[in-house]
């Protein structure tokens, strides 16, 4: 891959770096301390949900996944693994505790990732209106989402407005989990919150973006490949229309993040091919798997006209990318659900309670294959560790079925769709999401359901989709 000319503010020229971590601490102390970070190295840290870790840039310049840190501002992390990178060196004041922290020199960030940014920038300016359409694929925990976030942030810093799609239903972007997001990044991103926050109730100090949200209440596309393909086709139509409305956004192109489960030749290459075709992908970034990169090169490189060429680039798994195990991911989903309704410690929200009679609700159950039989909850797989390989999960034909509310729904997340309550199954599946509500209580005797919602307005005739099994029910959201 060539190194295009780069002109990111505050960045020096990229150069190769050596590869061993400088230090390694099992945990950090509470006392404030100063760490001096050498040029072109990164300060990696892993913070549990029970911990708080504060970073303040005392001198020099630094960035976190593409977002520059403001001097003297305290950034707080909890339930987060990441790295602060510095091009020219910096001093960080650190307080709080972390499970691990060390300076890493082996950083793909300064070389490979920046090269990709430069390439996208060149493609944006060489294009005749159509920006690069990038698909990022690879196994779990190889840095896909971090790369997408960094490319988006660098794109914004270069004056572009890339549109990012999250297709990983295990972690929400500007939305609770079990959703897919389309968001155009047209203003600075946030070091702590990444894409910022989505507009809900109450004043905010973070950047607010208006995303387009779809619901995919399954842990992996491989659980319901046909539903995934149908939804992707719908999203591609919406995204194409959105890009056509604004030449600057169209020229900035797309960056699509995918779940690691697509890295499976038997179950998923067809889904990757579907994404490539529906979004007219012309660049595939394959991280952390030689086999995937080689298979995709063979699949997409053959006999294409110049307009249809798909360039597949093989990228290295970054030294800092670490596993987020099932327990961590479950806690993250709970935190995302809680934040959707109650906000964060910085900007709290006041959710509203709504009560509906059974007869006033049109609820569709999306049955996750990982959860066994919803009609027989005792038989359901309560192994919420989700440790069976995706490809071996049982599949079921029923995707969305209309149900009468039951206590099984308590603690569940429900998507309110834009479509009317009596829509057909495909419309219910593909309709975008107005918002989410949480099922606080179901009274089967009185036939009423109590929901928690971010907004005071009641919704009228809308289809409601409940993911039975995905995301996991959150028991103690309302205490
Ligand atoms: N250079 C780095 N230094 C420290 N942590 C990093 C670095 N790059 C990524 N990480 C962290 O490693 C974890 C895995 O990275 P990321 O989520 O980007 O991978 P992924 O391939 O998208 O994983 P998944 O498919 O499971 O979502 C994340 O917590 C991320 O913040």
From TrEMBL:
One GO cellular-component annotation of the UniProt record comes to: mRNA cleavage factor complex
User: For the Clp1 C-terminal domain, which residue ranges apply?
Assistant: 349-472
Q: Tell where it localizes.
A: Nucleus
Where is this protein chiefly located? Answer: nucleus
Q: Where does ATP bind?
A: 42, 81, 141-146
GO molecular function terms noted in the UniProt entry = ATP binding; polynucleotide 5'-hydroxyl-kinase activity
User: Known SUPFAM superfamilies for this protein?
Assistant: P-loop containing nucleoside triphosphate hydrolases (SSF52540)
What are the residue boundaries of the Clp1 P-loop domain, all occurrences included? 138-342
Q: Which GO terms describe its biological process?
A: mRNA 3'-end processing; tRNA splicing, via endonucleolytic cleavage and ligation
Check the record and name the Gene3D superfamilies matching this protein: Clp1, DNA binding domain (2.60.120.1030), P-loop containing nucleotide triphosphate hydrolases (3.40.50.300), Pre-mRNA cleavage complex subunit Clp1, C-terminal domain (2.40.30.330)
Stretches with biased composition (Low complexity): 1-13
Q: Where is the Clp1 N-terminal domain?
A: 36-126
Which InterPro entries does the record cross-reference, listed alphabetically? Answer: Clp1 (IPR028606), Clp1/Grc3 (IPR045116), Clp1_C (IPR010655), Clp1_C_sf (IPR038238), Clp1_N (IPR032324), Clp1_N_sf (IPR038239), CLP1_P (IPR032319), P-loop_NTPase (IPR027417)
Q: Any keyword Nucleus?
A: yes
How does the annotation summarize its subunit structure? Component of a pre-mRNA cleavage factor complex. Interacts directly with PCF11.
What does the similarity note say? Answer: Belongs to the Clp1 family. Clp1 subfamily.
What this protein is reported to do is described as: Polynucleotide 5'-kinase involved in rRNA processing.
**Name of protein:** Polynucleotide 5'-hydroxyl-kinase GRC3
Organism of origin? Zasmidium cellare ATCC 36951
What lineage is this protein's organism placed in? Answer: Eukaryota, Fungi, Dikarya, Ascomycota, Pezizomycotina
């Amino acid at each position: 891959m060539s190194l295009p000319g780069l002109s990111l503010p505050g960045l020096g020229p990229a150069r190769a770096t050596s590869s061993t971590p400088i230090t390694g601490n099992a945990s950090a102390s509470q006392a404030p301390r100063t760490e001096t970070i050498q040029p072109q190295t990164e300060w990696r840290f892993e913070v549990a949900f029970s911990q708080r870790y504060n970073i303040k840039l005392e001198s020099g310049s630094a960035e976190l996944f593409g977002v520059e840190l403001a001097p003297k501002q305290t950034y707080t992390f909890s339930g987060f693994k990441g790295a602060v990178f510095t091009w020219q060196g910096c001093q960080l004041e650190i307080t709080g505790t972390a499970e691990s922290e060390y300076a890493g020199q082996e950083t793909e960030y300064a070389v490979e990732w920046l090269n990709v940014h430069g390439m996208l920038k060149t493609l944006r300016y060489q294009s005749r209106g159509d920006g690069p359409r990038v698909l990022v694929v690879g196994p779990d925990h190889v840095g896909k989402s971090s790369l997408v976030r960094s490319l988006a942030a660098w794109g914004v810093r270069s004056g572009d407005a890339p549109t990012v799609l999250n297709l990983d239903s295990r972690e929400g972007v500007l939305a609770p989990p079990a959703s897919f997001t389309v968001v155009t990044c047209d203003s600075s991103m946030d070091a702590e919150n990444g894409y910022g926050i989505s507009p809900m109730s109450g004043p905010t100090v973070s950047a607010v973006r208006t995303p387009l949200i779809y619901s995919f209440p399954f842990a992996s596309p491989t659980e319901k490949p046909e539903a995934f393909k149908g939804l992707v086709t719908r999203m591609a139509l919406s995204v194409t229309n959105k890009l056509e409305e604004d030449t600057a956004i169209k020229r900035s192109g797309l960056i699509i993040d995918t779940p690691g489960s697509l890295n499976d030749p038997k179950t998923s290459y067809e889904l990757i091919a579907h994404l490539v075709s529906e979004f007219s992908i012309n660049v595939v970034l394959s991280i952390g798997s030689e086999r995937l990169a080689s298979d995709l090169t063979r699949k997409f490189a053959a006999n294409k006209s110049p307009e249809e060429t798909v360039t597949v680039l093989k990228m290295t798994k970054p030294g800092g990318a670490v596993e987020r195990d099932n327990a961590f991911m479950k806690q993250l989903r709970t935190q995302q659900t809680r934040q959707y309704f109650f906000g964060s410690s910085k900007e709290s929200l006041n959710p509203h309670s709504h009560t509906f009679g059974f007869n006033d609700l049109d609820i569709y159950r999306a049955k996750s294959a990982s959860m066994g039989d919803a009609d027989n909850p005792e038989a359901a797989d309560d192994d919420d560790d989700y440790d069976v390989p995706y490809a071996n999960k049982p599949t079921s034909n029923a995707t969305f079925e209309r149900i009468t509310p039951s206590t099984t729904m308590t603690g569940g997340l429900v998507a309110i769709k834009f479509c009317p309550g009596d829509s057909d199954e495909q419309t219910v599946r593909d309709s975008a999401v107005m918002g989410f509500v949480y099922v606080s209580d179901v009274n089967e005797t009185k036939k009423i359901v109590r929901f928690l919602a971010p907004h005071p307005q009641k919704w009228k005739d809308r289809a409601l989709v409940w993911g039975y099994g995905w995301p996991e029910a959150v028991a103690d959201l309302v205490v």
